[in-house]
Design goal:
Layout: H1 18-50, H2 57-94, H3 107-136
Helix pairs in contact: 1-2, 2-3
Length: 137
């Protein structure tokens, strides 16, 4: 006999102060804006690749921006984790209990961002080789 597919949900009565609402709004808006910025840069990057210009300077800059935006997700994740930890600890303290939530540092997101930055460096080197090659011709 096995038990699977069990989900639990904790519902807390948290008083949302203006500061808490502001922090939640900042986290949501920053996540949404990072997603839009990544999609915008990817769209322009794919357009440039489709036009046959893979090693243009703009592509290096776009890839670098995408890598930095992905790394920014890790900071947003840390902020979200701290926010959730504060709300949970506040609710448990109000009931005389102690709770220690885990912090999420987004190591996987950091690694993905670093890989994108390495690819940007490769594109930068390709751009340098392309400009040197064009100067000889």
């Amino acid at each position: 006999i096995s038990i699977s597919g069990i989900e639990g949900k904790l519902i807390f009565n948290v008083v949302l102060t203006p500061i808490l609402m502001f922090v939640a709004l900042v986290v949501v808006l920053s996540t949404f804006s990072l997603i839009l910025a990544i999609v915008y840069n990817l769209r322009n990057l794919f357009r440039s690749l489709k036009a046959g210009e893979p090693f243009a300077y703009e592509n290096f800059a776009r890839l670098q921006r995408i890598g930095l935006f992905v790394l920014s997700f890790a900071f947003v994740d840390i902020g979200k984790s701290l926010f959730n930890r504060y709300l949970l600890q506040q609710n448990f303290w109000d009931h005389g209990k102690y709770y220690s939530a885990k912090l999420s540092f987004g190591i996987d997101v950091i690694l993905i961002g670093l890989v994108i930055l390495v690819l940007a460096g490769i594109f930068r080197h390709g751009y340098k080789l392309k400009t040197e090659n064009e100067s000889f011709i």
